[in-house]
Amino acid sequence: MEAPMPLVTGLREIGCEQSGLSRPDGSAKFLQGDTSVLAGVYGPAEIKVSKEMHDKSTIEVILRPKVGLPAIQEKNQEQLIRETCESVILGTLHPRTSITIVLQVINDGGSLLACCLNAACMGLVDAGLPMRSMFCGVTCALDTDDQLILDPNTKQQKESRAVLTFAIESTEKKVLMVSSRGVFSSAELQQCIAAAQLSAQKIFHFYRDSAKRRYSKS
């Protein structure tokens, strides 16, 4: 059995503000260290006949970079976020409608895809959309010394030989999505998954604390 990789860093400080925007049905600003993303959720709403699905809602994700127009990277990330959202949103309750999630990058200080996933989840919760579970994003990086870095910043990502981002669901801590670049072994993948699942518990705890603070009568 391979020895676990040494862990260099834990999660950076996280924060969230919900309902900051008036026009969307739900919104959330999520912060992880120097990375921050604003999510706006619209729907369930009317949809063009050409896009509607008779048995479930159509989910769209729009990711806007801090500056300029979306490029191939943003389009790839949109697809990953959309697939994650489709796996948890109970779309069959709202057939022939659209649910649109707009994500605006405010600042990219590393682990951006994970922050986008967290902002999307908190935006969906704020919109009151029915979901079978919540989800969160966790990024792991493997450096050249075979050390595992959780929630890496931009510099740590650039200096790593591999970066993996996971979407984890809240009920059974299953992996909903994996995005990776670089070279890593199957044993390293399993160790990254275990570290991501452990970190996910902290993020879900933060979600619950945020909800308690928001809805407590004190």
Structure commentary:
Strand 5, helix 1 and strand 6 form a beta-alpha-beta unit. This protein is α+β, with helices and mostly antiparallel strands. The protein has four helices and ten strands, in the order E-E-E-E-E-H-E-H-E-E-H-E-E-H. Helix 1 packs across helix 2. The longest helix is centred in the C-terminal third of the chain and has 30 residues.
Distinctive features:
single chain; 218 residues; alpha+beta; five-stranded mixed β-sheet; 10 strands; 32% strand; globular
Note the topology:
Blueprint (H helix, E strand, L loop, with lengths): L6 E3 L4 E5 L7 E7 L2 E11 L12 E7 L7 H17 L9 E10 L4 H16 L7 E8 L5 E3 L3 H5 L3 E8 L5 E8 L3 H30 L3
Parallel strand pairs: 1-8, 5-6
Antiparallel strand pairs: 2-3, 3-4, 4-6, 7-8, 7-9, 9-10
Helix pairs in contact: 1-2
